[in-house]
From TrEMBL:
Keyword Ribonucleoprotein: no
Descriptive protein name: Aspartate aminotransferase-like enzyme
PANTHER family (UniProt xref): ALANINE--GLYOXYLATE AMINOTRANSFERASE, AMINOTRANSFERASE CLASS V
Cofactor(s) recorded in Swiss-Prot or TrEMBL: pyridoxal 5'-phosphate
Alphabetical list of PROSITE patterns matching this protein: AA_TRANSFER_CLASS_5
Residue positions where N6-(pyridoxal phosphate)lysine is found in the record: K192
GO biological process: glycine biosynthetic process, by transamination of glyoxylate
Molecular function GO terms recorded: alanine-glyoxylate transaminase activity; L-serine-pyruvate transaminase activity
First and last residue of the signal peptide: none
Residues holding substrate: R335
């Protein structure tokens, strides 16, 4: 029986060595063993975020990291702007709507990246904006936003306005760096490019954002970042952590640094380019233009009938799992993940399956076309 090839944009495959690391056996989280592991994790985690500051690790889902940024970095009555270009931008806006905030939504057409110039014009029409929230990668559409340019817009508006980025489906796959890109806060989760099962969330803040964390009152408990950063001073956690996931995190960070962060980013770009060139050779339509495409997920569109057939047949006959569209894009796209513990060979596997599916469905010979295009991209022979 074939193993499933998991090519969804989360959760993503977990390496066998990481499963082994997580099965070493549970141990106490108030021990020197845990303290040493926590300290080592911080040393390896900070370069991935591009910060010298400690990174809060929460035992919870990625959504908790989004809400943590909201409750720790803005106060009641503050004016905030949400860049919304898909389902997950909408989730950030939904979280903001649950609090006593003055919320403005900058809507971006689904499938397009935020335009810094247009956003700057919008932002300059508002007064006293405390924070701007965006996705790095809008997973529901496969768009990657221009973070550095957007950060410049935000800080040119007001250097004290915080730029907060949801990087759940980007961190560890897309080339981003808090310091270089002038991002005040990055939040992420464990189950995507970080190659772990769901269950850990991450919040990194720069000094400007950290000052804001300490300036707010006592209106949160489990998500109070002050407790996490205080505990990290002695390499512990304020609450009981998921020790086995910490063991897995320690291993995946070792994997990333063994490969090197630069090569990890390069591998993700290779997979992105392979897949896009192969999809084009199959006469399918890419949902996002080249300059806005994410290196971690690709959305493909066709007729609703073809989309349904492709998704179902991949799962039934080839044991390849991809994701469908959400909300406005339900039934209109499939989303193929290429992040974390995925490699060029996995792109060849799905493209080979798509060649067969479309050759039979359209009664047209696609055999070898997508694979040739992908390999030419991989080996720079186009």
């Amino acid at each position: 029986m074939q193993e499933e090839l998991l090519l969804t944009p989360g959760p993503t495959p977990v390496a066998r060595r990481t499963y082994q690391a997580m099965s070493q056996g549970i141990f106490g989280h108030r021990t020197s063993r845990f303290k040493e592991m926590s300290a080592g994790i911080q040393k390896k985690l900070q370069p991935l975020f591009g910060t010298d500051n400690p990174v809060a690790v929460l035992t919870s889902s990625g959504t908790s990291a989004l809400e943590s940024a909201m409750v720790n970095l803005v106060d009641d009555g503050d004016t905030v702007v949400l860049i919304v270009s898909g389902v997950f931008g909408g989730k950030f806006a939904d979280i903001a709507g649950r609090y006593d905030l003055n919320v403005h939504v900058y809507a971006v057409t689904w499938g397009e990246a935020a335009d810094p110039k247009s956003f700057g014009e919008y932002l300059n029409g508002l007064d006293n904006v405390t924070a701007v929230f965006t996705q790095a990668c809008e997973t529901s559409t496969s768009v990657l936003h221009p973070l550095s340019e957007l950060a410049d817009v935000v800080h040119n508006y007001n250097e004290e306005t915080l730029f907060i980025v949801d990087a759940v489906s980007a961190l560890g796959g897309a080339d981003m760096n808090m310091t270089r890109d002038n991002i005040d806060c990055i939040v992420s989760g464990s189950q995507k490019a970080l190659m772990l099962p769901p269950g850990l969330a991450f919040v990194a803040v720069n000094d400007r954002a950290l000052n804001k964390v300490h300036s707010l009152g006592n209106r949160r408990y489990y998500l109070d970042l002050r407790m996490y950063f205080k505990s990290l001073e002695v390499d512990y956690t304020p609450q009981t952590p998921a020790v086995t996931l910490y063991q897995g995190l320690d291993d995946v960070l070792n994997m990333i640094h063994e490969e090197t962060i630069e090569e990890v980013f390069a591998r993700h770009k290779k997979m992105q380019n392979m897949l896009r060139r192969g999809i084009e050779a199959l006469e399918l339509e890419l949902f996002v233009k080249e300059d806005a495409a994410s290196p971690t997920v690709t959305a493909v569109t066709s007729t609703p009938e073809e989309i349904a057939h492709i998704k179902n047949t991949l799962e039934k006959d080839y044991h390849i799992s991809v994701a469908g569209g959400q909300k406005d894009l339900a039934g209109k796209i499939i989303r193929i993940g290429h992040m974390g513990f995925m490699f060029p060979k996995d792109m060849l596997a799905i493209l080979s399956a798509l060649e067969d599916i479309l050759s039979k469905l359209r009664n047209k010979n696609y055999y070898g076309k997508a694979l040739t295009a992908a390999q030419e991209s991989l080996y720079d022979k186009a």
